[in-house]
Design goal:
Structural class: mainly alpha
Number of domains: 2
Strand content: under 5%
Order of helices and strands: HHHHHHHHHH
CATH architecture of the largest domain: Orthogonal Bundle
Radius of gyration: 20 Å
Oligomer: single chain
Helix content: 55-70%
Distance between the termini: 51 Å
CATH superfamily of the largest domain: Tetracycline Repressor, domain 2
């Protein structure tokens, strides 16, 4: 394979510098500071030149979110690699702990990816793991969900016990889960992943995300001297509530 031309290498290097500078602005000043004008100024290039790489701020922000997703997934994957693949329960714990640790260490990246209300950013929100990049953070959690369902009898609800107003949304969520889990190599039937089970998975994520978000934003209703102990207690409750 031929080596990249000088022009191609220059373009690759410039695009990498743009993303690195955008990440630096995000970490140091928050996502509002990530603008094409600020990046052009920081890199010493003209704004029109920058538009050859990103057509808009929204396009750059989306790339930044994908980079963040990849970094989070890599950190979680490293933790999971240290746990025997056969120990599904401990893998779930490891994934949740890694998510919290990364979030606390990267609060501004957390805001951009999970909680931004910026007009140029479509917030992922706490209820959309099936919509995240297939090779990223969401895939790790959904793959683990597939393993849990294949190997354990979790405590679930009968479909008819799920609030009627939620069933249409949960049916779509369940169908997306089945596809994503199948892509990870675990085949489940609709009977194995009913609406009630999808509801349990949904609740697990909402409660995990809510706890971590409150800790990242410093919004616990009272000061906690042992936040890690509180998280571990919450995680144990979550695991117990689904029968793990």
């Amino acid at each position: 394979m031929s080596q990249p031309t000088r022009r191609a290498r220059s373009r690759v290097d410039t695009e990498r510098d743009i993303r690195q500078h955008a990440r630096q602005l995000l970490v140091e000043q928050g996502h509002e500071a990530v603008t094409l004008r600020a990046i052009a100024r920081g890199l010493g290039i003209t704004a029109p030149a920058l538009y050859r790489y990103y057509s808009s701020r929204a396009a750059l922000i989306e790339q930044l979110r994908l980079d963040i997703c990849t970094d989070l997934a890599d950190e979680m994957a490293a933790d999971l690699h240290a746990v025997p693949e056969s120990d599904t329960v401990e893998q779930v714990r490891a994934a949740c702990r890694a998510f919290r640790r990364w979030s606390l260490s990267h609060p501004r990246e957390f805001v951009l990816f999970f909680a931004s209300l910026d007009n140029d950013v479509d917030p992922v929100g706490p209820l959309g793991p099936q919509d995240w990049p297939a090779d990223g953070f969401g895939q790790i959690f959904l793959t683990l969900a597939g393993k849990v369902l294949a190997r354990h009898d979790i405590i679930t609800l009968a479909d008819e016990d799920v609030p009627a107003q939620l069933r249409a949304d949960l049916t779509g969520f369940r169908d997306s889960l089945l596809v994503t889990i199948a892509d990870s190599g675990v085949e489940l039937t609709v009977d194995a992943l009913g609406i009630g089970t999808a509801y349990r998975i949904w609740q697990f994520w909402v409660r995990l995300y809510g706890h971590v978000a409150l800790e990242v934003f410093g919004r616990f209703p009272y000061a906690m001297s042992a936040p890690e102990a509180l998280f571990e207690a919450t995680l144990s409750d979550l695991m117990r509530d689904i029968g793990l």
